[in-house]
Amino acid sequence: MWNPDFFIHNKMKTKFIFITGGVLSSLGKGLAAASIGALLEARGLKIAIQKLDPYINVDPGTMNPFQHGEVFVTDDGAETDLDLGHYERYTKAATSKKNNYTSGMIYYNVITKERRGDYLGGTVQVIPHITDEIKSCIFQLDGEVDVTIIEIGGTVGDIEGLPFLEAIRQIRGDIGRENTLYLHVTYVPFIKAAGELKTKPTQHSVKELRSIGIQPDILLCRTEKDLSHEIKSKLSLFCDVKEECVITAKDVSCIYEVPIEFHREALDERVVNLLHMWTRAPVLSEWEDLIERIKQPQHEVTIAVVGKYSNFTESYKSLNEALVHGGFSNSAKVNIKFINSENVRGKELEKEVLNCDGILVPGGFGSRGIIGKIEAITIARQKKIPFFGICLGMQLAVIEFARNVCGFPLADSAEFNPNTPDPVIYLMQEWYDYRTNTVQIRDENSFLGGSMRLGAYPCNLVKETISQDAYNVSEDNNTIFERHRHRYEFNMKYHEILAGKGMVFSGMSPDGKLMEIVELKDHPWFLGCQFHPEFKSRPLNPHPLFVSFIKAALAKKKGV
Ligand code: GLN
């Protein structure tokens, strides 16, 4: 159990920044946390970022992407909140299971301990048992890094968030003021009728936070306009925050400008001063170069993303970012045209995709919208439009090829049709999980959350393929690691037949049992992968498959 003496006596090294949000949701707390992480790294510090989510779900893996946005997957196979994607994109900190906890997990742990008799029959309460459990999750990363940034999900005032706020309130008492910083992200709206920025919502939000016992050290104010000296001093007076610590976080045209904008407002300097840290001046040249390139693209391409989630920006967050990153490496602005495969079909679909320079079919679950996606793949294959299929997109590319080229009209995935005579994509009953060193057994009745292949798995690339060229691996060092999140696999029974008709199998698990990448002969760029490359793409280090795909789309546009 959590014991403050332990940390004090072990001379805790890590300092903590706690980020809370006020007024309304969607203010970009995740981006703020990630950008502060980037700035601290630019000052030579080692950081970690953790997200604490107040909702009751035990893991975000089974949450609906319509409601909650993308599920981000880490190397160790944790299914997490999409904010962890921002943390990885902006910083060098790799995330794992330890970086995302929900109320559900916290309560689950406490209840498990209670059932085991750990509390010796004592009354189990929110304070101290739940709050202690939260604190031990926060302190898990202690000692490994210089600064841990903790983002508390939700908005101050939410009932579910109270135990988290109480836990972080206590931490200042436990480890001292110089080791803790409270940063509150808030909203300062511009009211057109009055022609003014309004501070009242922020005042109320800070009042709420102070009623819980937390006095923010920094206010990060999301706003459309620059905060004037008057507005800053008003906020300073009413919220009891030093004026220099009232920071303007103005809307920017590209999210990768946020670290530079924060630096202009001296946010990183305020943070290190408040934490009593001495660091070098930040080295931001990489970010500055990136912004330059983003602002002056030489080319432009349009990619059709044929998917089913209508909340497109949130449900395909990492994918959208990875496509844009692919553009950075090719000096190209990437426009993404989202096509809902449930509504757009046949001639209309053809017209839409033929206006684009590349087609991408992303991951997904269930049979809704499948027909439209297969139609898009047929068009890409026949009209030689660059095609990228990810996870479900790869599985559908295999189904399309089996049906329309190999003469298996009923070929399908067991996910959509368990009785198909040709299950080219099927549920592997038994497979070896190299990460846990166990044989995994699964069937139709397996528990949904527990039967997926999750996290990073190795894949060996075959020479003289698009994949080998994109990853630029040598023959003797041709293993890559990519992240997975799926239940179904390519059925090796069909390997030879499909290969005979021109499908190239360019990536396989080292034991040769799991198919990871398929390509097509006689096509400029047609590739499907069973993994999700988008999770590993970074603006400063775009993913090779996205770089190669955008390059092919540009070539198609230029008619090369
Ligand atoms: N539904 C498919 C499976 O479970 C694909 C999953 C995905 O695209 N992430 O295998």
What does this protein structure show overall?
With 560 residues, this protein is α/β, with parallel strands linked by helices. The chain has 2 domains: 11-289, P-loop containing nucleotide triphosphate hydrolases (Rossmann fold, 3-Layer(aba) Sandwich), CATH 3.40.50; 298-424 and 491-505 and 513-558, Rossmann fold, CATH 3.40.50.880. It is 36% helix and 22% strand. It contains 20 helices and 25 strands. The strands form 6 sheets. It has a 9-stranded mixed β-sheet with strand order 13-12-14-15-25-24-23-20-21, sandwiched between helices. It has a 7-stranded parallel β-sheet with strand order 5-2-6-1-7-10-11, with helices on both faces. Strands 16-17-22 form a 3-stranded mixed β-sheet, covered by helices on one side. Helix 5 packs across helix 6 and helix 6 (126-139) crosses helix 7. The longest helix is centred in the C-terminal third of the chain and has 15 residues, at 544-558. Residues 6-10 have low confidence and may be disordered. Bound molecules: glutamine. Glutamine is lined by residues 363-365, 391-392, 415, 485-488.
